[in-house]
Structures
1.
Amino acid sequence: MIIGGGLVGASLAIALDAAGIDAVMVEAAPPRVGDQPSYDERNLALARATVNGLDAIGVWKHAAAQATPIRHIHVTRAGEFGSVQLDARRHGVDALGWTLPARELGAALLRRLDECTRLRRLAPARLTRLEPLAAGWRAHVETVDGPLSIDTPLLVGADGTTSFVREQLGIANERYDYGQTLFVCTVTPERDHAGRAYERFADSGPVAVLPLAGRRCGLVLTVPREEADAVAALDDAAFITMAQERFGWRLGRLSRPGKRHPYPIQRVAAEALVAARAVLVGNAAQTIHPIGAQGFNLGLRDALTLAELAAETADPGDEAMLARYAERRAADREGTMAMSHGLIQLACLPQPLLAPLRSLAMLAFDRVPPLQRLLARRGMGFRGEPPRAVLERLP
Ligand SMILES: Cc1cc2nc3c(=O)[nH]c(=O)nc-3n(C[C@H](O)[C@H](O)[C@H](O)COP(=O)(O)OP(=O)(O)OC[C@H]3O[C@@H](n4cnc5c(N)ncnc54)[C@H](O)[C@@H]3O)c2cc1C
């Protein structure tokens, strides 16, 4: 039983259905793109491994037409020399990843969910209480037709950052408030983005520009929390001036900003991934800074690993399977969380003494072939012991 049908919960439900496993998915929002909290205007950078995984579970065919390939990634820090550049061709692939608005991925997931044959979907419906059983959980759910109770041998918390499942299981979490707000909107650059994604770090926080369809770009601008109200109140011309100052002129003049969406940023990490007959996936397990573009990528690897292990086990949710799950996810989870947190801390710290070290590190990752390969492989989402579904499939 999956609680939460967001990007990760829905992907897991589809993967289980594809593996021939019966499941129930409970989602608080009605099954429409505009109503689902994370099927919104954020632009997702999907790693190559993620697209392989979405393809393997039959979602990508509904999304591919709206996606834009990322052929080149360019990382810099304002005021310092050195940069890291990753190029798809140099690593023998057509794209390092793809960008896709979350609402388009949401629409593709909903279409694929409609094709599922073994899955029972309850939406809008909300988990309100859990009761432990000898070999599972009794879940009390409020639906539009009244209360329901459902017994399950495995409870999956895919209910996001403020996870009710995590709280009910008594799993503690570690929180870190970045004191930053992220603004997301589209812009039109003067020059063609040519499939380039940019990430630029500065004392005031990182800024990213992602290639989108129709020559548009997705802008992600981080500001200190205390400046968020003032930035939200800027008119379009003043906002573009600020974005241009922060990002620079690599794509020429930026214009026509779309509607701005603010997101306060925090990191929330569950202290355990599993409990008796229960497991956390996606943001319920770990919510990380969005600037590294890893949250859904990591959460999908949670979901696909869980589906793979469940398909190999007669009793999904037994202790040995859950222990194996936690072991399989450890390296990827810890590595991705450490990288994303460390990147923000290190790349945005203003200390001038760090500047030469940072520049040298950038040069090393840019020029030393084994470091480049490592960075490219990780950037494409091949980390730890990946689920089989994300690996490259030979034609
Ligand atoms: C601005 C921004 C940009 C991002 N960019 C990227 C990116 O480029 N690449 C990337 O990989 N990731 C990115 N992310 C992260 C990504 O969006 C998240 O990691 C992802 O949405 C997590 O999915 P989830 O399903 O775990 O949680 P959510 O999407 O939060 O879904 C949780 C679901 O659970 C439901 N729910 C909650 N409680 C209950 C209950 N009691 N009963 C029933 N249902 C319940 C909610 O309604 C919700 O639909 C970004 C995030 C932000 C904010």
Note: DSSP finds ten helices and 21 strands in the chain.
2.
Amino acid sequence: MNFNQNRHIYFTGFMASGKTRVGRALAKRLERDFIDTDQLISERTGKTITEIFQEEGEAVFRKMEYDLIHEIAEDPVPKIISLGGGSLTQSAVVTAIHKSGLLIRLWAEENVLSERIARKNTRPLMIGLSPEERLEKIRTMLAEREVYYKLADFSVETSDASSEEHITEHIMQLLRFWDTHALNVETKSGERYPIFIGHQLADTAGVLLEGLRISPSHSFLVCTDSNVAKAQANKLTQLRYQAGGCPVFKFRAGEVNKSLSSLNQLYTFMLRRRFTRKTCLLQFGGGVVGDMAGFGAATYQRGIPFIQIPTSLLSMVDSSVGGKVAVNHPEGKNMIGAFYQPRAVICDLDALATLPESEYLSGLAEIVKYGVIYDAEFFALMEENISAIRAKDSGFLTQLIRRSCEIKAEVVGIDEKETGLRAILNYGHTFGHAIEKITNYNRFSHGIAVGLGMRVAGRLAVLCELWSKEDERRVQKLLDAIGLPAIFDVDTEEAWNAMGVDKKAEKNSRVYILPTRIGAVRKIPNIEKELVDKAWDAIRNPSNPGER
Ligand SMILES: NC(=O)c1ccc[n+]([C@@H]2O[C@H](COP(=O)([O-])OP(=O)(O)OC[C@H]3O[C@@H](n4cnc5c(N)ncnc54)[C@H](O)[C@@H]3O)[C@@H](O)[C@H]2O)c1
């Protein structure tokens, strides 16, 4: 495990939830120093916390707490820290904690907390209360603090006080899972969820389900498609086992089934089996499963939690991150949908072993897209590592997936609902979606259509004099080297009409995302049809008229 090498572990939780006891036990197990922030402040000032509050006021205490946590956060020697009750009310403290380590919330049943508090009888806020009053006070305080406890990366139950070893062992399992933590997605609306990238993660997801506190009071439903259910049968069995032997909803694979009809089947399945709002969906599949069942989660009984467990490369680097969920309508792709963020994304690289080659290429196209729109160095890294890409080198793939998720998370973090920056992710998509539509969604995988679309967008950028022919050639060359298709002859009228019902088409205008150099794109509205028609030459068969 790498975890204990460099990161602090902070504990938060209600009084008597076990922060000191569990913190000390974990410190012993990991051979780290243990710090109780309240205790250390008391030692340093020679006063109890109550005395500091009474004599100097809460603001002075909060400043002391802020300074201490920043001091700890910057300490390179990893520690176990028990935080005081109100520490998380300061957003700068929360930022320092998240940057320097893992935040674990300890919790216990309300009546257990009440009994523990009564036994000690030293908590100033609880002295003199009857058992009923104490329980009521605990309930009120927990409800008030929930907003802060939600900031924790994991929650761990400590109701069963006798099994300290069991609790520590459970935390150790969470830490092992956390070793595969790549990043968090954080949106402006306050959503925050982790992305994990590693091996055998679906098979061990139970620990995460518990750590994210969507277990045990939740029931689970795995959603998957017919291909994934067959190709990944063992992993699916493991996943069900991890989720308490839950049922599986399976629908026929393929873009045409990302439909209202499949969605309705999902609703019916869930309603007939009496799934309540305390259900968590586990989306085990590619982008079609993630989008369709994600929209199911967004709408079933006005919204239930879901976790993305992407099994295609494209869904790992793109569709499972960012909270866009949708189904297609005969009038257009992704026309019925929502912005609805998952609770976590688990990229289990082992799933890629059964992914058809064309689907691998499809994911690679989206990865190239990130280089073109956002990160010239990332683009160059791919140019230099073609053989590792083609050989599906696991280490290099992890790097590619991680950086792609980082870029997507960064963009989505700034613009969750696509009012501005997020549109850059659509580079290649206006043309790609048109290709998919013209071919009835059954000739090219989504990413492959986007790869073709990027070639067209690259040519259009040359025709609009936004970037150089040399840049266009570099992109074409990388796509070629990876093995992405380069040819598709379109009827330009048909393509023009197909582009009209793209979501990215704004009223009375068409907006194109075009590159200005490798690593940057711009939104360009209303380009003359003649130029757009000409740009399709980029993917025309060279034996047909038009320049390549
Ligand atoms: N929500 C978003 O932000 C977003 C972004 C990009 C794409 N998308 C959507 O994602 C979809 C494309 O995703 P996709 O490319 O994953 O398509 P997909 O889900 O159809 O998967 C591609 C094919 O591979 C199969 N498959 C998936 N994983 C497999 C595995 N491990 N082993 C064997 N077979 C496997 C699937 O059954 C399917 O046949 C499109 O509908 C697109 O609109 C959404």
Note: The mean pLDDT is 91.
3.
Amino acid sequence: MDYDVIIVGSGAGGGSVALQLAKAGKRVLIIERGRLFTDPEIGQNEKSMLIERIAHDDRQIEINGRNARLFVSGIVGGGTSIYGAALLRPSPDDFHPGKHYSKHLPDYLCDWPIDYETLRPYYDQAEDLYHVAGNHQAAPPHIASREIPYSQLPPNLEPINQRLSQSLIDQGIQPFHLPLGIDWNICLRCPTCPGYGCPNESRASSWKCCIRPAIEKHGAEIWTETEALQLQLGENGQVQSLQVLRSQTREKVEITAKLYILSAGAVSSPHLLQRSGIKDRSDELGRNYMYHAGALAVGFFKRPTSAAERFIKQLGWTDDYFGTPSFEHKLGYFQALPIPGPLSIKSEAPFPVPLSAAKFLHARSMAFAGAVEDLPRRDNRVSVARDGQMRLTHRFHSYDIFRARFILKRLQKFLKKAGAVIVAGATAEKDDLHTAHQVGTCRFGNDPEKSVLDPNCRLHGVENLYVIDGSFMPTSLGVGPALTIIANSLRVSDHIIKEVL
Ligand SMILES: Cc1cc2nc3c(=O)[nH]c(=O)nc-3n(C[C@H](O)[C@H](O)[C@H](O)COP(=O)(O)OP(=O)(O)OC[C@H]3O[C@@H](n4cnc5c(N)ncnc54)[C@H](O)[C@@H]3O)c2cc1C
Ligand code: SF4
């Protein structure tokens, strides 16, 4: 065998398992389709990052019947190289979706095969690995929180966030400092953070926290600009090799390992399995694609909010996680965040806006976003198109849209009460470009008739094949998925080290 382990994908899931296995002395090779993206000027350029989306996957695929680019990150570090780094724990109830959605889910989806207590120590480890800054004493309502101090405290709120925080408190909400994977000792407090490249690696990414140490300290290897094409199965039903394409030379190479781990994200991992002719008994492979419904409300204030000058993504709140007294439906977390820049305002506005006006508005803007835990639907799926490329089909459940519309109104009300003079916004129901939070397409479970992976994320029936990324989640949680993907990757790494390799 060329390696002990080959890991496809260097994002949130792939990075943590690569580091753990390399630390344990295993010969690890990471295959990554994207390149290492380090140019600080391009990384901070709105046109390149948010309009041309040069850090995103460059493939044209079929999305809901039309050709479009898939806006998931396609560089070393995956989503963690451009994400917002809000690393929250979910509610323990999120592991028992039947408590809130029993009318909408079959019995076998009412409980995850593991509960929060199983993952709890791995959340601690994940927060340490991604040097999350937070205040463990200010436990947010409904979601789980850390019981021991974080490695850093968050910095003081910017004046705009002090005002917003007070306004939310006046409206009966308990806002808290978002736990962020940012090293505040060196952070430059740029207004251009989520969606952009970090100029000095203050933001915790899989490259910084996992892949680079795995290579430099523990002898792992990475092949960048290399696409995993196909797994070859032997007659014994086990994976025998992986075929990859090295983009620079157009050379196809066959590599072998004792163990194969797919961490290519919830869109690419099932596609790679399907393209390799691997079938699951449950017929759930590639299905149940979720990426959070929800809403984004934008407020424009009379005075500058400092959105154009400072880092303002600081506040979160979870009071409405399980709904409100007048709307008893599970929702998710809310956060304040910046509009990425004036060009984004220009491109999203329903009418032509001159750049000068977009700059004026951007400087006075603040957005509130809310997540809705979207429900798994079998018809929402990744499949293989005739040319071998990916095909995505997705439509939100009517219950998701119902809840997202409620959130939009609620967020707009919060903004108005906080002094916004104009409010706008949209729900995620029209977005079929699938930008973030993809999960669900290879869900784990005890029953091979109902799930793709076993509780340790091994493909049912294929001893030497694991999927360790966002695909494993049976439901999408009410918070961003990154911390749970990292924690689960650390859990499965322990299992592999103790019981497999
Ligand atoms: C702008 C943005 C902001 C976000 N903010 C947050 C946030 O604040 N909090 C939060 O919790 N989550 C956030 N997310 C989501 C989070 O980043 C993702 O949930 C997480 O990174 C998913 O991890 P993953 O391991 O499943 O896949 P990814 O991190 O997407 O990694 C998959 C990797 O596999 C590579 N790959 C794909 N196919 C192949 C192939 N065939 N061969 C080789 N390599 C391949 C890709 O290039 C990629 O590097 C954000 C995402 C984005 C895009
Ligand atoms: S605000 Fe800090 S973490 Fe974000 S991009 Fe700037 S330096 Fe990096």
Note: The first strand starts at residue 3 and ends at 8.
